[in-house]
Write a structure and sequence with these properties.
single chain; about 500 residues; alpha/beta; Rossmann fold; Nucleotidyltransferase, domain 5; nine-stranded mixed sheet; 16 helices; Terminase; P-loop_NTPase
C-alpha cells in the first residue's frame, strides 16, 4: 500500500493573478529539452509565476512556493532561472540562508552552461565566476545569475531584475531590507521577487515568509502568486493519505519508506511541519491567554535539576491524548519551574505506551514515577484504563491524582497567573503554542472558574490543560523524591 502512494499534484492552496499568457509554458519545454523534465505540479507553479499581464509586465510582482522538503522545490527555481536568463536576458540575484546551499545551486545551474551536449547554452556564456561567495554566471545576452548567502548587509551593491529567496523560511526583516533594494531599479523595468521554502520552524528568527503567506491567505495582495502544499492542523501524522496530499513528489523522487522512518524519529508537530507542510498560525489566534506574556516565558536555559510532575489529559472527544511535565527546581537555585509538552498523540496508539513510559527506568536508574512528584490523569476516555495499567505495574496510588472540576479550576487559574507573572519557563513547541493561541475560557461552576475550549474547530486545546495540570501538580505536591531527575524530555 505504501509503495503505491502517489503525491497530489494540485496544491492545497493557491492564489494566481489573472494573466493574458504565461512564459512558463516555454520555460518548462526549455528545461525538458535539457534533461529537467518538470512534474505536473512543478509546471503548474512555473506557469503561475511567469504569468504575463496584457501590458507585458509580470502579473505577479511577488511569487511564493511552500512545499515540504525533498519534493523538488530547487528544480522549480532552476527551470525558472534558466528561462528568464537564457531566453529573456534578465538579471537574477539568487540568495539562500546558507553559503553551502548557494554553492550547490550554483553548481547545478553552471552544469547547464558547461555541458558539451548543450553548445547553444555554452555559446551564451560571457564568463562564469567560481570564487566562493562571489559565484556568478554572466551571459552575452545580458542575462546573469549571481549567488549570495544572506546576511544583514549582503545584497548591497547588487542590481537585478529578479530576486530569488531560497530557504525563505529563514528570511528575516533585516535581511530583506538589505536585499530588496537590489531590484528597485530593475534594468528590465519588470521586477519580481521569488520566495521558496518550507513552513517557518519555531526556532527560526524568520518572519518574512510567514507574512507573505498570510497575505496570500488574506486575499488582499492582488499581485501575489502563491502555491502551498500543507495541512491545516497537526492531526493524525500517521495517515498516509495526508502524506500524499502534501507531498507532490511522493512515489517518484520522495520514497514512502523514508517518510515512514521520519515519522518514527520526529515529534508529531515536527513531522507535521517538515513533512506535512503545517504552519503554526498564531497570528490567526483567538485566545483568552495573554500571548505577549506567554512569549515572555520562553527560555533557552531551562532548569535541569529537580523533581518532575507529570500530567496526562485525554481530549473530550476521545481522539487525542497529551503528556506533559513540569520540573520543580530546588529552592535556592534561582531557577523557575519549567513546563513542557512531552507528547501529543491520537488515541489510536492506545494508552499502554503511557504506562510503559511512566514506569520505565529514567536517566537516574529508577522508575520515573518513583522519582516523580505526581501523575495527574484526567479525561473521560482512557483515564480509568491508564490508572489500572499503572497500578498493575506497581505504581503507588498515592502518586496518582484524578482531579475533579475544582482541581481543574485551580490548575488553570494557577497556570494563567504563572503566565502573567512569568513564574515558569517554557520552550517553543508548535502543538502547545498552537493550542494556547486558540484557548478560550470554558466556564466551570458559578464562581468564575474556567477550563479551556478551542476557538477553532480544527484545533485541540488539550495540550494547554495538560501543561496546566503539570504545573499545578509541581506547585502543590508535598512529595520529596530522594534523588533528582536530570531529564524531562522523552528519551
Amino acid at each position: 500500500m505504501v509503495a503505491r502512494l502517489k503525491g497530489r499534484q494540485e496544491p492545497s492552496f493557491s492564489v494566481v493573478p489573472r494573466h493574458a499568457r504565461s512564459e512558463g509554458v516555454d520555460a518548462c519545454d526549455l528545461a525538458a529539452g535539457y534533461g529537467m523534465v518538470p512534474d505536473r505540479w512543478q509546471r503548474t507553479v512555473v506557469e503561475g509565476w511567469l504569468g504575463v499581464a496584457r501590458n507585458g509586465l509580470w502579473s505577479a510582482s511577488d511569487c511564493g512556493l511552500a512545499v515540504p522538503r525533498q519534493n523538488g522545490k530547487n528544480a522549480v527555481t532552476e527551470i525558472f532561472e534558466l528561462h528568464v536568463t537564457a531566453v529573456l536576458g534578465m538579471k537574477v540575484l539568487h540568495t539562500a540562508h546558507e553559503v553551502k546551499t548557494c554553492r550547490k545551486h550554483f553548481i547545478r545551474m553552471k552544469a547547464y552552461f558547461e555541458n558539451a551536449k548543450y553548445p547553444e547554452l555554452s555559446d551564451l556564456v560571457a564568463y562564469i565566476r567560481n570564487t566562493n561567495g562571489q559565484e556568478a554566471i554572466v551571459l552575452k545576452n545580458g542575462g546573469s545569475i549571481e549567488f549570495i548567502a544572506r546576511s544583514k548587509s549582503s545584497g548591497r551593491g547588487y542590481t537585478a531584475d529578479i530576486l530569488v529567496c531560497d530557504e525563505a523560511q529563514e528570511l528575516t526583516d533585516e535581511q530583506m531590507e538589505a536585499i530588496q533594494p537590489a531590484i528597485s531599479s530593475a534594468p528590465s523595468g519588470n521586477p519580481m521577487t521569488i520566495y521558496a521554502g518550507t513552513p517557518t520552524p519555531p526556532s527560526s528568527p524568520g518572519t518574512v515568509f510567514d507574512r507573505i503567506r498570510r497575505n496570500a491567505h488574506s486575499g488582499k495582495s492582488k499581485r501575489l502568486c502563491w502555491f502551498e502544499w500543507g495541512v491545516g492542523e497537526i492531526g493524525d501524522v500517521s495517515d498516509r493519505k495526508r502524506w500524499a496530499d502534501t507531498n507532490p513528489s511522493l512515489g517518484t523522487r520522495l520514497i514512502a519508506s523514508v517518510v515512514e522512518s521520519e515519522l518514527q524519529k520526529m515529534s508529531p508537530d515536527g513531522f507535521a511541519r517538515e513533512r506535512l507542510g503545517w504552519w503554526n498560525d498564531e497570528a490567526d489566534s483567538d485566545t483568552d491567554i495573554d500571548l505577549a506574556a506567554w512569549k515572555a516565558c520562553l527560555t533557552e536555559e531551562p532548569a535541569t535539576e529537580g523533581p518532575v510532575a507529570y500530567a496526562v489529559k485525554f481530549s473530550p472527544d476521545g481522539r487525542n491524548v497529551s503528556l506533559a511535565a513540569c520540573r520543580r527546581p530546588d529552592r535556592g537555585t534561582g531557577m523557575k519551574p519549567h513546563v513542557e509538552l512531552l507528547e501529543y498523540k491520537p488515541m489510536s496508539y492506545g494508552t499502554q505506551w503511557l504506562a510503559d513510559w511512566l514506569t520505565a527506568q529514567g536517566p537516574d536508574g529508577l522508575e520515573r514515577w518513583r522519582m516523580g512528584l505526581a501523575i495527574v490523569i484526567d479525561g473521560r476516555v482512557g483515564s480509568s484504563t491508564l490508572v489500572n495499567q499503572l497500578v498493575d505495574a506497581g505504581v503507588s496510588k498515592r502518586v496518582i491524582r484524578t482531579p475533579g472540576s475544582g482541581q481543574m479550576v485551580d490548575a488553570t487559574s494557577m497556570f494563567e497567573q504563572g503566565i502573567n507573572e512569568q513564574s515558569f519557563t517554557r520552550i517553543r513547541q508548535d502543538a502547545l503554542d498552537n493550542a494556547v493561541a486558540h484557548a478560550k475560557h470554558r466556564r466551570i461552576g458559578s464562581d468564575g472558574g474556567f477550563g479551556y475550549e478551542s476557538s477553532a474547530e480544527n484545533i485541540d486545546t488539550t495540550p494547554v490543560e495538560t501543561v496546566a495540570y503539570a504545573y499545578w501538580a509541581a506547585r502543590t505536591s508535598r512529595r520529596h523524591p530522594g534523588r533528582k531527575q536530570r531529564m524531562v524530555r522523552l528519551a
